[in-house]
Amino acid sequence: MRAITLGAALAGALAVSVSAQADDSLKRKPGLWELRMQNEGQPSPMGPMQMCVDETNADPTQQPPGAPKQDCDKPSVSKDGDKIVVHTSCKMGSSKVLSEIVTTGDMSSAYHTDIHSTFDPPIQGKKDTTMTMDVKWLGACAPGQKAGMVGAKAKGKANAAPQH
Predict the structure, then answer these.
(1) In 10 A of CB 87, how many CB atoms?
(2) How far is CA 6 from CA 24, 92, 121, in A?
(3) pLDDT tens-digit profile of 1-15?
(4) CB within 8 A of 41, min separation 6: which ones?
(5) Phi/psi at 22 (5° precision)
(6) Which of 118, 127, 90, 81 is nearest to 16 (CA)?
(7) Whole-angstrom distance, CA of residue 157 vs CA of residue 89
(8) What is the pLDDT of residue 62?
(9) Cis-peptide, bond into residue 121, ω within 30° of zero
(10) In 3D, which of 110, 109, 103, 123 has the Cα closest to residue 61?
């Protein structure tokens, strides 16, 4: 449970911190995307996830449903070619969370994100954490699959839940 909670917090930090800087170059290509997340030093709590994307959810900087609400200062963002570097300072509960988020790649085919965060005071006994996310475009969404459907190897309604 700890990896999922910290993972949700970091994914939320990514979304909140970059959202103010979002532009069309950050929007994913419509279709089926696969996401693999890994917290350094921990086994992956789940396998790859798939998500059907259309214009309504193409912006990966939107805060995911269920992510903890955070109070963040304005992020520092720099962009150089296909590399985006974001530095954030957020308050999560009683902790200050400093993060460096580095994303490289192409939102039309594949991208990689490294997130290194420090917590003061520690959260769930952790002073810092590093998470990586690898995201790749797989092709068109399956027939009947709706935008926002997320699941492990989501192929339709049976194992997918809408995310908005």
Answers:
(1) 15
(2) 28, 11, 14
(3) 344 445 544 554 444
(4) none
(5) -60, 140
(6) 90
(7) 38
(8) 60
(9) yes
(10) 103
Highest mean pLDDT range out of 10-19, 34-43, 56-65, 103-112?
103-112
Backbone angles phi, psi at 14, to 5 degrees: -60, -50
β-partners of residue 130 are 116
DSSP element (H, E) containing 11? helix 2-19
DSSP, residue by residue, 75-124: PEEEEETTEEEEEEEEEETTEEEEEEEEEEEETTTEEEEEEEEEEEEEET
Is residue 6 helix, strand or coil? helix
Q: In the chain, how many H helices and how many E strands? A: 1, 10
Q: Report which residue type is found at 36.
A: R
In this prediction, residues 71-94 reach a mean pLDDT of: 89
pTM as predicted: 0.71
Residue 157 Ramachandran class (φ > 0 left, ψ -120 to 50 alpha, else beta):
alpha
> Over the stretch 52-78, which tens digit does the pLDDT of each residue have?
888 777 766 665 555 556 689 888 989
Identity of the amino acid at 96: K
